[in-house]
Design brief:
transmembrane helix, 14 helices, about 375 residues, transmembrane, 8 strands, membrane
Amino acid sequence: APTWLVGDGSLPGRFGVYPFVALLFQLVAMAMGGTLSLQLAQNIMGEGATTSASLHGVPLLVTLAGLVVLFLASRAHARRQVRRGARPGGFRIWLTALITGVVLAALAVGLSILLAGRGTLAISIISLEYRFDAVDLQLALFPLIAGTLVAGWGRQCAAGAEDGLIAGTVRSLAPGLGTAVRLCGRYAGGVALAGLVGLTVLAFVHHSPATGLATLFFGLTAVVEVMALGHLSGLTAQTTARLGYQQDTAYIWSGAIQQYTGLWPMLIWVAIGVGILWLALSWSRRRPRTAMATSWFAMPLAFLLLGLALQWAGTVRFADNGFVLQGFYGLAPAWWTPVCLLGWGIVVELLARFVAPLLGRRRKRRVERQASAPV
């Protein structure tokens, strides 16, 4: 038999190439919200036993890279249509985006099922059958929802279509919501980048270059959790191990956090403070000038969406049925994180309406005094 199937005693040789290729596809499925499940069927001298484990954790860099590629591809396709003279309306744009989301979800689920890892490994008197995949409900929902929104956003940016029924309704209920979401996204991206760089430097200095490099690629989930803590929410740990169900919530100032990380996570407050100030000034200049009471809703709603995104992206779950760490273990931002972020959105709205104009007028008067001062 070929050595790439039978192997020469090395790990890839023992398992073959296919399981490692399958694992790459399942990691991509995890980036789309899937939960990696592993089932092992052991046969030791005629006696069988089955164990299983599952892991839910989103490789966020892969997720972000995929969404950026989808946005760029959708925008490029829409620009190509515009150059050909086509001017699709808002309904057609979002219908096409929905089809894109459906196709993306079908491909994600189909490839994860088709390329599920499976095989048999014989070691002495032990025969081990294994299977792993990342198929679950989220693997269908996340590509459908995120794919539709990102594809529609990319097409609308390029086509410049007029508002459809949905966009017009949203604009009337929360004027400026699109601008608020874009500014909030830049704020979150800046804070996350600062946190990721800081976490990578700490890992590089206090541990090793390899740890720093691993943190750079896989530490974004930890950064999301630190962002939730930095916005004064909590981090909830759950376990159903042999001691029974336990749930604990810690905050950035809690001893449980400082025991493992020290005071370093509090540095995120610097990035948050600078970001909130920039966001308030930017929103003060760009928010719609309207007397509608619903104009107060845009920035709080944008922060509410950010809170939901933090709670989803920062969730890590591990379930074990038959291995050494038997039980369920979970770590996620506290359930009230979206409500907490909603409060931050209200703070930004107040700063943009009442504080930022005062700062702008003071700066304008200072510039005028400097211009009128005798040389």
